[in-house]
Amino acid sequence: MSVDMVMGIMGQALKVTLLISAPALLVGLAVGIAVSIFQAVTQIQEMTLVFVPKILAVMLALLVALPWMLNLLLTFTRNLISNLPMYIR
């Protein structure tokens, strides 16, 4: 197994990791910004107001994106296992 092959696998793993985490992180960011703007406009400075909408939105985003995320993980794993004989050389 060459260094280039290891770097390629590592790059693919990082890409899959970023793609899988992106939906939840982006939705959490958007809801956090929206709640912060709402708090600034209404001058409500309740710290716990951010958590409930953000948790619900992230859970909904994960529920919606779960089939795509599983497909991405399965494809990556399938390619990794099917190319295992090439990695042993």
Provide structural commentary:
This protein is mostly helical and 89 residues long. It has a domain of 32 residues. Helices cover 87% and strands 0% of the residues. It has three helices and no strands. It is elongated.
Which regions have little confidence, pLDDT < 50, spanning 5+ residues?
A: none
Radius of gyration: 19 Å
CA-based shape: elongated
Distance between the termini: 6 Å
Binned, the helix content reads over 70%
Oligomer: single chain
Q: What's the total helix number?
A: 3
| Topology pattern, helix = H, strand = E | HHH
Overall residue-averaged pLDDT value: 92
Binned strand content:
under 5%
Q: How many β-strands, per DSSP?
A: 0
Comma- or semicolon-separated keywords:
87% helix, mainly alpha, elongated, single chain, 89 residues, 3 helices
Compact summary:
The chain is mainly alpha-helical.
